[in-house]
């Protein structure tokens, strides 16, 4: 395939779907890892995308990568958007819930990057985006503490991948938005803001694909964005 190939998780809705649509519009071919891969999400066609069965909690990254390489022969970027929000207390006794949070928000992106590592090297301009959160930069409240715990790990992962891949031409970025106008964003806002006053998915998607297309000499380790005044963010 002559077109660049992007692997993307969390593309059934929200930020992930927005990034998939924007990347396809710019000429990327998008392989979406979806729990329900029976049909492509709205705004995507078989000319520019495919749906592959994938569950971030069960470790199906290697078969996904192997299939993409057989079908398309290349992987140029990985965008990890799949994530879960949990408002439980940081001192919860529910270890299973905490482990699930980390499994999806931090471990799955690491496994996907590792599975795609050699193709990203072979690309010569491999790109990785970990969709983290401002909750990975600061803990704003007790309500967001446990979620922030997992997103700090996600930000650290992006930095570690950036160091590991630098000499191979791989660039990794943690994108850390505040509240975005999605179902998850509305839950996080807890009634404090209207969707129109939040960061819009289309704007964040454009920022993400811009980041994928930056030259290696203009690498950004982190990008923080916000829709409200929030300390240094």
From TrEMBL:
User: What would you give as a GO molecular function for this chain, any one?
Assistant: oxidoreductase activity
Q: Which domain of life is it from?
A: Bacteria
Name a GO CC annotation attached to this entry. Answer: membrane
**Residue ranges crossing the lipid bilayer per the database entry:** none
| Oxidoreductase recorded as keyword | yes
Where does the signal sequence lie?
none
Q: Does the keyword Nucleotidyltransferase apply?
A: no
State the Pfam families in the record. adh_short
UniProt keywords (A-Z) are: Oxidoreductase
Assigned protein family:
Belongs to the short-chain dehydrogenases/reductases (SDR) family.
What is this protein called in UniProt?
Short-chain dehydrogenase
């Amino acid at each position: 395939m002559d077109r660049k190939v992007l692997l993307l998780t969390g593309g059934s809705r929200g930020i992930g779907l927005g990034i998939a649509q924007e990347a396809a519009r710019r000429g990327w071919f998008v392989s979406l890892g979806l729990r329900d891969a029976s049909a492509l999400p709205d705004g995507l066609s078989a000319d520019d995308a495919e749906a592959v069965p994938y569950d971030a909690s069960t470790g199906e990254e290697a078969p996904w990568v192997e299939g993409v390489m057989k079908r398309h022969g290349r992987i140029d970027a990985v965008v990890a958007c799949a994530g879960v929000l949990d408002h439980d207390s940081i001192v919860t006794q529910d270890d299973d819930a905490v482990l699930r949070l980390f499994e999806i928000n931090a471990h799955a992106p690491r496994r996907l990057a590792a599975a795609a590592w050699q193709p990203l090297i072979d690309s010569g301009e491999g790109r990785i985006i970990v969709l983290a959160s401002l909750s990975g930069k600061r803990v704003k409240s007790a309500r967001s503490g446990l979620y922030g715990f997992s997103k700090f790990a996600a930000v650290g992962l992006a930095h570690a991948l950036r160091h590991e891949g630098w000499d191979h031409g791989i660039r990794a970025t943690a994108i850390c938005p505040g509240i975005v106008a999605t179902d998850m964003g509305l839950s996080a806002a807890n009634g404090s803001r209207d969707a129109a006053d939040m960061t819009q998915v289309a704007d964040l998607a454009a920022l993400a694909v811009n980041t994928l297309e930056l030259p290696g000499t203009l690498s950004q380790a982190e990008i923080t964005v916000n829709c409200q005044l929030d300390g240094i963010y």
